[in-house]
Amino acid sequence: MTSNQPERLHALDAVRGGALLLGVAFHATMSFLPGQQVWVVMDAERSAVMSVLFFWLHMFRMAAFFLIAGFFGRMLLERRGLKGFLADRSRRIVLPLVVFWPVLFTAIVAVMIWAAVKANGGAAPSGPASGFPSLPNFPLTHLWFLYVLLIFYAAALLIRGGLRLLDPGEAVAGVVDRMMRWMVELWLPVMFAAPLAFAFWSDPAWLAWFGIMTPDSSLIPNVPALVGYGTAFAAGWLLHRQASLLQVWTERWPMLLGVGLGCVSTCLVMVGLEPVLTPTPLGLSKFAYACLYAMGVFCWTFGLAGAAQQFLSGHSPARRYVADASYWIYLIHVPVVMALQTVVSDLAWPWPVKYALVLGAALAVGFGSYQLLVRGTVLGGWLNGRRHKRLAHKQLAKGRGLVHAEATGDVP
Fold this sequence. Notes:
Largest sheet: none
Keywords: Membrane, Transmembrane, Transmembrane helix
InterPro entries: Acyl_transf_3_dom (IPR002656), Glucan_succinyl_AcylTrfase (IPR050623)
Protein name: Acyltransferase 3 domain-containing protein
Organism: Caulobacter mirabilis
Number of domains: 1
Order of helices and strands: HHHHHHHHHHHHH
Strand content: under 5%
Number of strands: 0
Domain Acyltransferase: 10-367
Structural class: mainly alpha
């Protein structure tokens, strides 16, 4: 089936960029969480407000990213073919993962050492040294999303290729399309959430407070991450086959976000405002929480996609610029955020001031370095799919050359 989406998909591009930028806000909260230490830097001032923000952002932001990545991934494959798809993804996903990982890992380790020395009164803390982990354990850091995205691309291509060989008449594809329509139009997020809820409930090591555990420390992602983010990616991929289904979420976004808000609130009532670092015991409470959390993941993801379609479908040079910059900013932000958190950690300032300073300075570094080092350079062409000329914003303001991102599936 061929999708009939419009040429310009500014709303979905805004969701993708917003999900990445929210990662900066998310990581900036982590030094301010109350309770036990969960981050390399722990601030002298902490707040339950940061727990709520952390909990809410973690529930949906990466699921939203993978939804859009699936949609644009199939778009790119349809428009460029397999060879063009592989060339584009190798340049814009594989190479950034390979090239940026050692640089960012080194920077993160350096900041961790600095933070530990600072917390220990200026002296290096003593303790057993830990060697480099053996495979499959591997410190992917925040670049795990690129690694997992490659897994999903490979799975999608294998399934697509197998179906084309075994089902040339697309009978199976037709059934899948009908199921997708049914799931979107009738059951809303329930059927999408069910696999993730089961993955949560059946995992004996599940830390319920943290929802989908970040798969950043192993080359074999944890099952809830594969199931939850894989479901979001598959939903986006299948949605591209019949993009008119986006209208369902556009019409129902208030209800979806309302249910999502209820899920967040109820989950927080059940687990409390402080991070809990012990596995959740099996029982009815775990089952109920797993269902509510999984529903929240997809209600927020689909609701935000619908709201974006409602309010952000038109072209905006400012939003386009932010969307272009978001990939670079997300790549570099973690060591920057950690360094800023280390600087302010022992200052006797209110936490809102320190959080705003960390977030604002990290975004300033991100946007500033993007403008100076990326946008008009070869690196910009590498990451964004094209190299912007220094005066390209004037052309964009006049409405020329606006289709490139949508025509090429301009997403990481």
